Amino acid sequence: MFFRKDYAKPGPGVDRDEPEKTGPARLAEIFSIECVTLVKLNLLFLLSCLPVVTVPAAVFAMNRVTRMMVLDQPVTLLYHYKAAFKKDWKRAYAAFFAIAAPLVLSGCGVWFYLSRAMAQPLLLLPFMLCSTVLLLTLLASAYLYGLLTTERSFRECLRLSLLLGAGRPLRGAAAALAVYGSLAFAVLEFPISGIYLLLIGFSVPCLLGGFFIRMELKRL
């Protein structure tokens, strides 16, 4: 089947004594193993987003699957995607709105106060506050979905994501740039980027985001 992966199929052996690859070598290894699955995942994600109201659950399910890839866990795409989509939909919607609401509100605040700060310098104070909220939300969101794949409560995941976003900003910034930056660029370049968005425009940035923050989550 198109969305099933055959782990029983013979392939090149892996030396058990071989040291675990890290950095770019590990990322290249993941892509070499999961390249076809990433295309399938992107198509499955787009299909499951068509009703629009299912977007939060689809985002959560995609993050769950790419997290498994980063952790080198076997992925049966349709099974694991469907399980995350159906079982964890409450956490999915909570995570989506916990990220979307402050992003939208602080983004609007940044635009509103900055456009008026030249005439009224005191408005730089709420502008700085909105900018801080916007930045912290972007950094925390890079960690949140990875944390939600654990057995921790949603409140604990949210707390840890905020702490990691503030305390480990470099990894979070790299992950946020991979996800939000690539999506923004693709949207600006549409329709030229149409094929990219269709095939890998969501799954690959999601994988990259999870890869960049993997070591920080490993330390928890």
Structural class: mainly alpha
Count the DSSP helices: 10
Q: Could you give the distance between the termini?
A: 37 Å
Low-confidence stretches: 1-14
What general form does the structure show? globular
Q: How would you characterize the largest beta sheet?
A: none
What's the average pLDDT? Answer: 88
Order of helices and strands: HHHHHHHHHH
User: Could you tell me the number of beta strands?
Assistant: 0
Helix content: over 70%
| Rg value | 19 Å
Proportion of residues in β-strands: under 5%
SSE topology sketch:
Elements (H helix, E strand, L loop, with lengths): L22 H27 L5 H16 L6 H11 L1 H29 L6 H25 L5 H14 L1 H20 L5 H6 L3 H10 L1 H5 L2
Helix pairs in contact: 1-2, 1-9, 2-3, 2-4, 2-9, 4-5, 5-6, 5-7, 7-9
Structure description:
The protein has helices spanning about 25-50, 55-70, 75-85, 90-115, 125-150, 155-165, 170-190, 195-200, 205-210, 215-220. With about 220 residues, it is mainly alpha-helical. Helix 1 (about 25-50) packs antiparallel against helix 2 and helix 5 (about 125-150) packs across helix 6 (about 155-165). Mean pLDDT is about 90; it is low at about 1-15.
Q: Which terms summarize this structure?
A:
single chain; 220 residues; mainly alpha; 74% helix; globular; disordered N terminus
